[in-house]
Fold this sequence. Notes:
Number of strands: 0
Oligomer: single chain
Helix content: over 70%
Transmembrane segments: 15-39, 51-70
Mean pLDDT: 84
Radius of gyration: 18 Å
Strand content: under 5%
Largest sheet: none
Keywords: Membrane, Transmembrane, Transmembrane helix
Number of helices: 3
Amino acid sequence: MISTYRQRLDPRRSVLYLTAGLLATWAFAGALGLITGALVLDPEAQDRQPWQSPILAGVSLALVVGLHRTNLTTLKRER
């Protein structure tokens, strides 16, 4: 017999996935801004970047934050 039961998504998980998706979007936007130079930082923030390189900072932001949050949002589709 084929079951037509569909599991409902918990509202807390929906908020988690929505928040993770928004964070991933903004992380990729920030990374693009850093890489292209459209995002100008103050000198103190520039000194804290790895090797004072906005390109490396943008790539790191995309990899560490963006991909991690994108991975979390894709878990929703697998369940």
